[in-house]
Automatic annotation (TrEMBL):
Necessary cofactors: Mg(2+)
Protein name, per record: Uracil phosphoribosyltransferase
Similarity annotation: Belongs to the UPRTase family.
Source organism (scientific name): Sporolactobacillus laevolacticus DSM 442
Top-level taxon: Bacteria
Pathway involvement of the protein, from the record: Pyrimidine metabolism; UMP biosynthesis via salvage pathway; UMP from uracil: step 1/1
Catalytic activity: UMP + diphosphate = 5-phospho-alpha-D-ribose 1-diphosphate + uracil
């Protein structure tokens, strides 16, 4: 079973409180999501493999380390996932960015795929799917399936807030995928929204309703 990691770093929790607040406007909300994504990326890359190298300092030669192994790929689920991309790129500027477009049918709450564009070498990359909300888990599970069908192997899911129902769904459909959250909330309401959550992440990021 994939791991569920809730990142309780004080800076993440502090900024998440501000993100949740309904009084936080679009500009501040976008900046905070960006900052939390950077902090979460720091944690999600903690287990990257290193290789030993030699570097010449101004004083002497030194044994040092650099990242080895696979390259990284960031895959936002459109549209709200776009709000987390730049935050991750701040830390990993060489990562390639793919996109998976999904929307949730308002009647069935099931995901419908409408767009997929991924790096050509997807099978060679460690992939991080980003989306602010893990609600029913349907969109996240569908995005992971889409990546696997196109050759993705090593996949992680990174969301700001998750509901227990969404975590359960992803773990059921993709037990090999680790899930990283800033918070695990109480439940979903009858409309499929996370409680207490933060509202509609896409609308709050882009100023729509």
């Amino acid at each position: 079973m994939g791991k569920l990691i809730v990142l309780n770093h004080p800076l993440i929790q502090h900024k998440l409180t501000m993100i949740r607040d309904y009084k936080t406007g679009t500009k501040a909300f976008r900046e905070l999501v960006d900052e939390v994504a950077t902090l979460m990326a720091f944690e999600i890359t903690r287990d990257l493999a290193l290789k030993e190298v030699e570097v010449q300092t101004p004083v002497a030669k030194a044994k040092a380390y650099e990242i080895a192994g696979k390259k990284l790929g960031i895959v936002p689920i459109l549209r709200a996932g776009l709000g987390m991309v730049n935050g991750v790129l701040q830390l990993i500027p060489a990562a390639k960015v793919g996109h998976v477009g999904l929307y949730r049918d308002p009647e069935t709450l099931k995901p419908v795929e409408y767009y997929v564009k991924l790096p050509a070498d997807i099978s060679e990359r460690d992939l991080i799917i980003v989306d602010p909300m893990l609600a029913t888990g349907g969109s996240a599970a569908a995005a992971i399936t889409s990546l696997k069908q196109r050759g993705g192997v090593n996949i992680k899911l990174m969301c700001l807030i998750g509901a227990p129902e969404g975590v359960k769904e992803v773990q059921k459909e993709h037990p090999d995928v680790d899930i990283y959250l800033a918070a695990l909330d109480e439940k979903l309401n009858e409309h499929g929204y996370i409680v207490p959550g933060l509202g509609d992440a896409g609308d709050r990021l882009f100023g729509t309703k």
